[in-house]
Specification:
The complex is a heterodimer.
Chain A (H helix, E strand, L loop, with lengths): L1 H6 L1 H22 L5 E3 L3 E4 L3 E4 L1 H10 L5 H17 L3 H5 L2 H15 L15 H16 L9 H11 L5 H13 L4 H6 L1 H9 L5 E5 L9 H5 L14 E2 L10 H5 L5 E5 L2 H8 L1
Antiparallel strand pairs in A: 1-2, 2-3, 4-5, 4-6
Helix pairs in contact in A: 2-8, 3-7, 6-9, 7-11, 8-9
Chain B lengths: L3 H33 L15 H7 L5 H5 L6 E2 L11 E2 L14 H5 L11 E2 L2 E2 L8 E4 L5 H4 L5 H5 L7 E8 L5 E8 L9 H5 L7 E4 L1 H4 L13 H11 L14 H6 L1 H6 L4
Antiparallel strand pairs in B: 1-2, 3-4, 5-8, 6-7
The chains are: A mainly alpha, B alpha+beta.
Amino acid sequence: MINWFFHHRFYIARRMTQTLILLAYFGSNYFGWNTIVGNLSTALVFGTIPLSDPFSTLQMFFAGAVITVDIMMGVGVVVFFYSVIGGRFFCSWVCPINIVTETATWVRNILPFNTVDVCSPLPQSTRTWMIIISFVLSYIFSLAAYEMINPIGIAHRGIIFGFGMGWVLLLAIFLFDLFSQEYAWCGHICPVGKFNALLGKYSLIKVVHDKDKCVNSLECFKACPEVQILNMVGHKSATITGSSCLKCARCIEVCETGAFEFSVVGITKQLRDDK
Amino acid sequence: METPNTTKRRNFLLKVIHGVGYYAFGTVAWGVYLKQSQANSDVLRPPGALSEADFVKTCIRCGICVEVCPYDALKLSKITDHVSLGTPFYEPRKDPCQMCIDIPCASSCPTRALELKNLIRDDVLSINNAKMGLALINTQTCLAYLGLQCTLCFQACPLTGDAISLFKERNTRTDMHAFLKPVVHPDVCTGCGMREHACPTTYPSIFVKPLSSISGDIGSHYIVGWEKQDESRARESAGDSNMKKTPRNEKSALDNVNDVDGILEGLYD
């Protein structure tokens, strides 16, 4: 039992963080706490620190809206955090959709869907195209295009302000991730994650791989949602510099020999490891 | 002829075509949805809101205005609401705007989609300057217009006497009673919806509509001669050299009107 907790220590920590953040948002609206008023697009922490989502702000900019100083400051704070801690920390430690998609993946792994090797229709480059199309459509329709369909926003607003029929979209994403392909939404479509990844490409907190401890069990490959970033595993001790690393720490949990760990890595070492 | 190079090229081209197919379909479907969720002229926005088209693009959908609204009158639209997704609005029949004097919604907006400047008139910032909508009366179902005694809207209005007044009229049906007809003054009415909320008829006989969907526009081709500015506009345009010359406007406009002989001769038929 203790072993189970040890092997899911980051998983439990992430779920607790996600729940606590949601609770803080929910309580701010429902009970009137002054913790974090707003939602994931823009919020005010303790009535002083502004936070704004850089991706939706950029869409607003392309839509032709005037960006106020309040929003710019919020974007500044978020970009600073992303570039220090890592952009996709958001995905695995904050985003409410992550709970849905990881649950779908968990069910998918119980069911025999992954044993049949069918072609995956969605390439990972789709999310880059989603960013570009979002900006183009924002410009054409004078409206933050992705925010109109963003399941993160819909889910988050739903939890804070009441869902309506919004839960149907969550069900759709659950089924999409369960049946179509592995990590279909987060790994292939969601432009928010990709955008945050680009912001946090050279963030200071990284997962580091130690070749000498690796026994080639390939457990990390089974656990990692973005396997392309694990290309050095087993033959080179290096920092995992791939921008799409979620810092979900699944690799750290599943590795029996402790070949992965979180570490603070300077940019020069990251650039050296990148080669 | 099948060299590895041509298959490579063929594969590449096929891949591009595949991609174009998927993305074209996705983008068009997305675009159609966006077109639907653009400005909707039939929704009531919080005080100080920008024009609907500007509001929809400037609002970052954070919901802070909804959270600070002390009466929970503001709601954030859900996917089934027929209002641009995630934007604040209110439904006066259920929860009218309570016209807080400190305007918490507009003063907390981080994007200025709710602009306090829109609430300033004559250097005074007041919620009473809000133009969220305008109350309209259906005189066929309004109890007062039918001759019954009902002054609920008159009593509910926060600016009663200024934004709404009672117009007394003899009731010729009974010849012994008076109508007390409510009349809305559009220059003062803020559109808060308190009257719609108070109206006792099954479906409200006084109801608020956003200004953009009902306000008329006199246009530039009519001159209101008793106002100095408009009169001078008339004088300026009289000397407009671009105007086409016809027998009627050869002379000055004033001469034309006074040319009784010409009119009698049928010169201008």
